[in-house]
Structure formats: C-alpha cells, structure tokens
Design a protein that fits this description.
Blueprint (H helix, E strand, L loop, with lengths): L2 E5 L2 E2 L5 E5 L2 E6 L6 E9 L3 E11 L25 H20 L5 E2 L13 E9 L4 E5 L26 H9 L7 E8 L4 E7 L5 H14 L1 E6 L7 E4 L5 E5 L8 E5 L9 H15 L6 E5 L7 H5 L4 E6 L2 H13 L5 E5 L10 H4 L4 E4 L20 E6 L2 H13 L3 E9 L9 E8 L1
Parallel strand pairs: 4-6, 7-21, 11-12, 16-17, 16-19, 17-18, 19-20
Antiparallel strand pairs: 1-5, 2-3, 3-4, 5-6, 8-9, 8-10, 10-11, 12-13, 14-15, 20-22, 21-22
Helix pairs in contact: 1-8
Keywords: 4Fe-4S, Iron, Iron-sulfur, Metal-binding, Methyltransferase, rRNA processing, S-adenosyl-L-methionine, Transferase
Enzyme class: transferase
Function: Catalyzes the formation of 5-methyl-uridine at position 1939 (m5U1939) in 23S rRNA.
Length: 437
C-alpha cells in the first residue's frame, strides 16, 4: 500500500511537510504544517520515505493559491503555496533551531527579518535546456520538482528578472529553431542594472545561421549574448562586441555609492534589492569608523569590501578565485578607492602564515559559502578584533561557527536574524553580530 492519510507535524529544511507513518518519517511535497493530507509514497529509503500530496483533507490557514501556474512541477520554488509572513517565520524557526541544536548558543537580540520584493527578484541563475522528441520542441527552464533529471515544461517565471521571466518560452522557441537544438546544454543568465546577459553553453560549434539567430534575438529583446563552447574560461561575447555588466550598491547614508562590474558567470548576490538592504544592515552592525582596519573574508567581487572602503582607514578582501580578486581590484581602482587591497587565498586551507592573517584587524566580516568558516576560525580572529559580522547562506554552518566564536574565542552572540534572499524557497540566508566580551 502506497497511499495513506497523515498529519503534517513540521516543515523540513527544503519546504516539504513532515509526517510520521508507522514510526517512519515521511517528507511530503506540497503539504504544510498543521494539514491533514492524503499522500502517495513516491520513494522509499531505509530511514525515511518521500511522498506527494494527493488531497488536502484539512487545509492550513496559511495556505494560499500559488501565483505561478508551473508551481508543483517546476522545482525552482517550493513555498509559493505558503503566505509570505509564514514563510519568514518558518525560516526564522530553522535559524533558531540550528543555533540551539548545533551551536548551543542564542543571540541576545533577534533582529527583525529583512525582506524585499518577492517577485522578479532573481538576477542570476541557470536554465536547463533539453530537446524533447515526444513533445516536438525544446524545453528551457528549471529542473522538475519531482524528478530533477527532467526539465520543467514552463513558458514564464515570476521570480526571474521581469525582463527575462516572461520570455522563457521564447528561449525554447529560439533554441528549437537552431541547427544546434540538441547541443545547447544550458543557458545562464545574469542581470546588471542596465544589461541582462545570456550565456549559451553549446557542446558543438555553432553554424553561422545559429549565430545570426542568436544575434537577432538579442537585438529584438535587448539582451547581451555570450557563448560558452568549453569551460568557464571559454565564455566570450557574441553580441554586442563589448557588453558591460555592472550594478551599484550604497555605501551608506551620506557616502558615495560604489559600482561593481562583473562577468556573467561571476558570483553575485541573486537578489539585487535584498543585497542593498543586506548592505545597510551589515554596515549598521559592523559600525565602521574612519580609523578602523577591517578584514573581509570570502570577499568575491568586493560586494562588501568597496562600500566599507568608503568609510574606514583600510579594508582588505580575501577570496579564493583569482578572477574575482582581479575584478575586485579593478572595481576598487574604478571607484577611486586606494585603501582597499585584495589577496587570493584558499580559505579552507591554513593561511595563518600570510601577512594579512597576522595583522591585528579591528573588525572582521565573514561571508562564506555553505561550508562556513570553521577552518579560518582556527587562527582568526586575533584578540584585537572587537567586532565580527557573519553573513551566512547556510544556518547549520553559521550555528557551528557561532559556537566556535562564543566558546573558543570569547565573543558573545549579540544579535542575529534572517534575510529573505530567496522568497518562495526554503533557502535561509542570515546575518549575525559578535562582540568581544
């Protein structure tokens, strides 16, 4: 028997309902906390099962009608059926639970959640492409929720930048008209303030006819087109000849903004509006002063480094990717900042012998990937560092590292809170302030 009735007692970290059937945990897609549902087991595992909702018997008061007609098929969003306030509350609960369970710490103050525009926010992403013979056309979109091997059959996306989201179907028509329809593997998109770039990953050389079709599409819709015939280093513009991707971010009240140029495959924060709000909160928490010397680890393009340079005596950014560091330095020069320095270093290896790691920094900013910063925290911060702001994309690694800072380095967790970088998904972005006791 694969069909059951069950009560949903929790939400999982990926936004699925959690039920118990015969003592075994079942993750139920499409179900919300507090609901009674009829479900079908889709996949069995040793310690848990996965299921889909067949019928909602008792409806959550927080359930809403998803805005997107592709919800439930497309795996890009998992929480469109949950109202916005409850989405944030669910993410806050995840952060609270991780601090208590993993870090065994609790902030003295919970920061109010940061939110911004919930639709059309996504300026960076990767669209899968697949020619499907049975459908007689090419599908362009995100992976299916129920089977990530397949591309969801979508024609629009409400969370993608509004200049691109309504045109997903047109991309499928474009690729379907090309000689290389079966050889386009993916299309990555990146939006600056004035330009949207599309990067076509193609497995074989493109014909002149295909190149002409891409140029015509770019001219009609106002996109910049890049080609990627190989690895990351092979990416190059097709049209226009010299496209420019850039975005501006505020350096704080009364302080001149900075502008960052970037390449289409560079890491940038997905949500431009939230990035600006996150910047404001980061500056408030770090409280940079004109005499401060600040270390910015996992600095990327200088997203935090350059706004900080407008406000402090010196800031040094450290990042593992050479290309990002080179562009961060170029951005500093372009913005007339001579007090921002950058270094290439693998921060998951011991760097305590470097000059920048030995320096007595007043303040420290951390913005690591999902793995967190525990390797760095083996030798930093020094006793001179009085304040740390930690921006996190993974609550479990933040909680672990918070425990290290509090229990091993003598800091107190002053405040923490969530930031809704990815509305309608279960992704939890957060920020925390640590002060020396």
């Amino acid at each position: 028997m694969n069909e059951f009735e069950a009560s949903i007692t929790d939400l999982s970290h990926d936004g699925r309902g959690v039920a118990r059937i015969d003592g075994k945990t079942v993750f139920v897609s499409g179900a919300l906390l507090g609901e009674q549902v009829r479900l079908r087991i889709r996949k069995r595992h040793r310690h848990f099962d996965e299921a889909e909702t067949l019928e909602i018997l008792t409806r959550s008061p927080h359930r809403i009608e998803p805005r997107c007609s592709h919800f439930g098929q497309c795996g890009g969003c998992s929480l469109q059926h949950l109202d916005a306030v409850t989405q944030i509350e669910a993410k806050q609960r995840v952060l609270v639970d991780n601090f208590a369970r993993i870090g065994k710490v609790e902030p003295e103050t919970w920061l109010p959640p940061l939110t911004d525009e919930a639709w059309g926010y996504r300026r960076k992403g990767r669209l899968s492409v697949r020619a499907v013979a049975k459908k007689g056309r090419v599908l362009v979109g995100f992976r299916e929720e129920s089977n990530p091997r397949f591309v969801a059959d979508i024609v629009h996306c409400d969370v993608v930048h509004p200049a691109l989201g309504p045109k997903i179907g047109l991309l499928g028509e474009l690729v379907g008209s090309m000689d290389a329809a079966a050889d386009i593997a993916q299309i990555e998109f990146a939006a600056g303030d004035d330009t949207i770039a599309l990067v076509f990953r193609h497995l074989k050389p493109l014909s002149e006819s295909d190149r002409a079709k891409l140029v015509a599409f770019a001219q009609e819709h106002g996109f910049a087109i890049y080609l990627q015939p190989g690895g990351v280093s092979s990416v190059h513009p097709l049209w226009p000849e010299h496209p420019r991707l850039a975005f501006r971010i505020p350096a704080g009240e009364g302080v001149q903004d900075v502008e960052l140029e970037f390449q289409p495959l560079d890491f940038v924060q997905v949500n431009a509006g939230m990035n600006r709000r996150m910047m404001q909160r980061t500056l408030e928490l770090l409280d940079p002063q004109p005499q401060d010397h600040v270390l910015d680890l996992f600095c990327g393009l200088g997203n935090f480094t350059l706004p900080l340079a407008r406000r402090v005596a010196e800031v040094t950014g450290v990042e593992g990717e050479h290309g990002l560091v080179a562009r961060a330095a170029d951005n500093a020069a372009r913005n007339g900042l001579n007090n921002a320095r950058f270094h290439v270093a693998n921060l998951f290896e011991d760097q305590r012998g470097t000059d920048w790691a030995r320096k007595p920094w007043d303040k420290l900013l951390l913005d690591p990937p999902r793995a967190g910063a525990d390797k760095v925290l083996e030798y930093l911060p020094h006793k001179e560092t009085a304040r740390i702001v930690y921006v996190s994309c993974h609550p479990a690694s933040l909680a672990r590292d918070a425990g290290i800072l509090v229990n091993q380095h003598g800091f107190r967790l002053k405040s923490a809170g969530v930031m809704d970088m990815f509305p309608h998904t279960a992704h939890v972005e957060s920020i925390a302030l640590f002060e020396r006791r």
